[in-house]
Amino acid sequence: MSQQDLISVPPSITEPASFGFSPCEGGICAAMGIRAAGIHAGFRPDPNRKDMALVVADQTCTCAATFTTNRFCAAPVQVSRSRAASGHARAVILNSGNANASTGEPGVQVAKASTALVAQALGCDEEDVLVASTGVIGQQLPLGPYETGVPVAVERLDHSTDAAHDAARAVMTTDTVPKEVSLVGPVACGMDDDEVMVHVGGFVKGSGMIMPNMATMLCVLATDAPLTHEAAQAALSAAVSVTFNKVTVDSDTSTNDTCILLATGATGGNPIELGTDAYDVIAAAIRCACENLARKIAADGEGATKLVTVDVLGAANESDADTVARAIANSPLVKTAIFGHDANWGRIAGAAGKCGVAFDQYDVDIDFLGVPVLRAGLPLPMDEEDMLQRFESPEVTIAIDLGVGDSHARIWTCDLTHDYVTINGDYRT
Predict the structure, then answer these.
(1) What are 136's strand-pairing partners?
(2) Mean per-residue pLDDT for 136-150?
(3) Are 266 and 289 in contact (CB under 8 A)?
(4) Range of 109's domain?
(5) Looking at residue 192, what is its pLDDT?
(6) Is 400 helix (H, G, I), strand (E, B) or coil?
(7) Which residue, of 243, 267, 299, is where some domain finishes?
(8) So which residues are the catalytic ones?
(9) Is 2 buried (19+), middle (13-18) or exposed (0-12) by CB count in 10 A?
(10) Which of 70, 215, 241, 319 could form a disulfide with 257 if both were Cys (CB 3.0 to 4.6 A apart)?
(11) Model-level pTM greater than 0.85?
(12) Domain endpoint, select from 264, 299, 334
């Protein structure tokens, strides 16, 4: 590699045109057969802040899910994990402001009671209603807001973009913006393999306490493709592993991480099974939607001013690549340097070298902000004024080639700012 060649980084899959899809309106309600609502139910004191979301399929449908691996998993995770194993669901009820975590058996009973209220209002089986919560840990979650809020939310259920947006806003905690995505594209899954237009949409909340091992804070996705349960779970698990599992804001894993996919099959056509061409297209769309949302989480990290993408290449295996990428992405020194617009690549090298992965420093190349700054372990001349201008971009890129093998990992993170300390220092007060 010459001094001026950039490290060759694999392309992102955020661009849906690469597999025939395009962005569309509708959020989670872009998927046919899905309705949503978001209201203020009373979990939060501010009557102008939405705090309960409801997502409902017109009929019981295929369901897939992933959950936190935190051993302090919250009551709603315990309930939803058990129910999602059936492979079908009708609705998801979500609240913000109270995590219902570390609340013991009373918390489990409240989680189940909330789903019973939804089931009664919809006329469906209680086991087909999943539940998710986010907010403060260790406080008992009252049932009262569900008792008054569920009938209102059911009455307001709608297929509209506005309804999807209300649901996305209702799950926000320290998020500064709602995070939504919706895609549409042709898939050969109709009768006689005719192409039908398939939608994938969803929303996510997540801003801090982000380094999940199974999902992210709270995410609900929906598609109108006729996926089998096996196909839906495979597509979701594969997408989560390379998107939500590759986000870190502060290296902490939530007690409540939940990611749910509903597949209504409202397009009609033949069931989409694992290993088919139609599955490959839908799996790509689901992964694209998840990557879009994962990047939004990192960009909206608590107090963040920059989205940071870290690529580690040339590792001996994927595990080593991931370890080095996380060491860089979680380094307070790297993150604060980015906040201060300081092109201090030495902090990147130091973070990579501390994490226990074997490599020879004189085989290592580093690019920072699209500029070669290190080749074969030695620094290159750097124009500080040019680097300052490059920091004006909303996204900062870091690429490091270890020169050991062919494996690659990508992690998304953000800078570390004064506001992160303020937000988390005041979280309960």
Answers:
(1) 98
(2) 94
(3) no
(4) 16-299
(5) 73
(6) strand
(7) 299
(8) 216
(9) exposed
(10) 215
(11) yes
(12) 299
